[in-house]
Amino acid sequence: MAAAPSEPRPGDAARAAALVSAARRITVLTGAGISTDSGIPDFRGPQGVWTKDPAAAAMSTIGAYISDPEVRRRAWRNRLAHPAWGAGPNPGHAALVGLERAGRLHGLVTQNIDGLHQAAGSAPALVLEIHGTMREAECLACGLRTPMPEVLARVEAGEEDPLCPECGGIQKSATISFGQALRQDVLDASVAAARSCDLLLAVGTSLTVHPAAGLCDEAVEHGAWLVIMNAEPTPYDPMADAIVRDPIGEALPRLVAAATDGSPEASGGPSGDGVPGGPPG
Ligand SMILES: [Zn+2]
C-alpha cells in the first residue's frame, strides 16, 4: 500500500460538506466510478478492461473500426452484451438528482456513455455527455442517429455489421472513440459550466483523460472550489480543497443530504459574483 502524495487531510469530509453547502452553482463531473455500483466496469481503473488488455483499447480506435470489418463485428457483439443494458442507476446518481431538485446543480458533465444520469431522473438538458452515448447509433457517413436498441435488434437477428438504413454507411455507437474528435458544442458547454460554477465536484473520475480533466483547471482558474471524490488518487488532488475517498454510493448521498438539508443562508457562501473567497491550499 504505497502512500499517495495527496491523501485526504483531517477534516476533509467536513470541509467537503461545508463547501457543497456553501456553493450555489455546482458543476459536477462524473466518471466511471459513479457507475461501478450499477455493475458497469471501469475500463480505465486499476482492474479495468483496457488497463489489463491494451489490445482491447487499440480495438476501440476509430481507424481500426472503419478499416477492419472484424473489429466492427466484435464491436457489435460487445454492444449487445454491454452490462449497461441490464443496469439501473444507483444512489450516487440519485443524489445528483437531489442536488438538481434543490436548485444547486449548475451543470452535469459526464465521461460516462451509459445514460444512467438521465435514467435516474437528471434533466437531459443539464447532462453533457462529453464522450457521447451508447444509447444511440450514429452513421459515420450521413450522421443519422437511431436508438441503439433498434440497431441491436438487427444484430440479434443475424446482421453482423448493420449498415445505415438511409445511406448504407458504417454505423457505430454515438460514443467518442479513440482518435475521434469530441463534439465541439458539448465541449464548449462543458467548459462554460466549469468556468461559471462556484464549485466543481469531480466524482468517480481518475482525472487523467483530457479534455475532461482540464475542466478542473477551468473551474479553479475562474475562482471555484474543487472537491474530488474518487477511490484512487488523481493528479488534481494537490489542487483540491477537499478529497473524499469513501465509496461514492455512500459518500455522495451523505454529502448532498448534508448540503441540502441545512439552510442555504447559514454557511456564508460565495458573495457578489459568486467567486468563492479563500485561496485553495
Ligand atoms: Zn447514413
Average pLDDT figure:
88
Please report the number of helical segments.
11
Q: Total domains, how many?
A: 2
**CATH homologous superfamily of the largest domain - what is it?**
TPP-binding domain
Low-confidence stretches: 1-5, 262-281
SSE string, helices as H and strands as E = HEHHHHHEHEEEHEHEHEEH
Classify the fold: give the CATH topology of the largest domain.
Rossmann fold
* Count of strand segments: 9
What characterizes the major β-sheet?
Answer: 6 strands, parallel
Q: Measured on Cα atoms, how large is the radius of gyration?
A: 20 Å
Query: Strand content of the residues, in percent?
Result: 15-25%
Structural class: alpha/beta
Q: Tell me the strand order in the biggest sheet.
A: 3-2-1-7-8-9
Ligands bound, unique? zinc ion
- Termini gap: 26 Å
What shape does the CA trace take?
Answer: elongated
Using the coordinates above, name the CATH class of the largest domain. Answer: Alpha Beta
CATH architecture type of the largest domain: 3-Layer(aba) Sandwich
Helix content: 25-40%
Question: Overview of this structure, please?
Answer:
By secondary structure, the protein is an alpha/beta fold. The protein has 2 domains: about 10-40 and about 90-130 and about 185-265, 3-Layer(aba) Sandwich (Rossmann fold); about 45-85 and about 130-175, SIR2/SIRT2 'Small Domain' (2-Layer Sandwich), CATH 3.30.1600. It has helices at about 10-20, 50, 55-60, 60-65, 70-80, 90-100, 115-120, 150-155, 185-195, 215-220, 250-260, and strands at about 25-30, 105-110, 125-130, 130-140, 145, 170-175, 200-205, 225-230, 240-245. The strands form 2 sheets. A 6-stranded parallel sheet has the order 3-2-1-7-8-9, with helices on both faces. A 3-stranded antiparallel sheet has the order 5-4-6. Helix 7 (about 115-120) links the parallel strand 2 and strand 3 (about 125-130). The protein is elongated. Residues about 1-5 and about 260-280 have low confidence and may be disordered. The structure holds zinc ion.
